[in-house]
Write a structure and sequence with these properties.
- The chain has 174 residues and is α+β, with helices and mostly antiparallel strands.
- The chain contains five helices and four strands.
- It has a four-stranded mixed beta sheet.
- Helix 2 links the parallel strand 1 and strand 2.
């Protein structure tokens, strides 16, 4: 998070940790400096596909040989996302919703196969997973009923490219 490093430093209180503010795709680090980079729920908030590609390239260049990138992002191919977009489009068309007023300023989700291709241009993808979160129950208890099903589908990797979230683990080989 670009806004919270001082707070994280106080909570962590670790002399071996360093927090730096920056905005992707411009990383202020030397090449091949890290063994692990975690980019969780960030890449989809970059405004253009070119910036997303550039961010992945920048992260790859910061990894040491054998280093790993763990990247997570929502999956636009998930049934949840498809249904959500259909509902939002419908209620927007009849005037009950304005996507411009949503909390997230940018929702630039990347389809799993496309993301795999982008990452593979710079790193070796060693694992690809999806998690099948259930729909929100809105206080009805439905989510408690469906959670075991969601957990099973996630653990079994049933249709991993259809999970609400997608996870990539990639390694720098050269």
């Amino acid at each position: 998070d670009i806004t919270l490093p001082p707070l994280m430093e106080k909570k962590l209180n670790n002399d071996h940790a360093m927090f730096t503010q920056f905005a992707l795709p411009h990383l202020p680090f030397c090449n091949r400096q890290f063994k692990l980079i975690v980019c969780s729920e960030v890449i989809e908030h970059l405004p253009t596909k070119e910036m997303q590609k550039s961010a992945i390239k920048s992260m790859a260049s910061c990894l040491s040989k054998g280093g790993y990138l763990i990247l997570t992002t929502p999956n636009p191919s998930s049934p949840y996302a498809i249904i959500r977009n259909a509902v939002l489009t419908t209620v927007e068309a009849i005037g009950y919703h304005d996507r411009g007023r949503e909390e997230q300023l940018i929702e630039n989700w990347i389809e799993p196969r496309r993301l795999n291709v982008i990452i593979s241009q710079h790193l070796e993808v060693v694992e690809r997973r999806g998690s099948a979160y259930t729909i929100p129950g809105f206080g009805t208890g439905l989510e408690d009923l469906l959670r075991p099903v969601s957990d099973y589908l996630t653990a079994a990797q049933f249709a991993p490219t259809l999970g609400l979230y997608q996870y990539f683990v990639a390694r720098k080989v050269g």
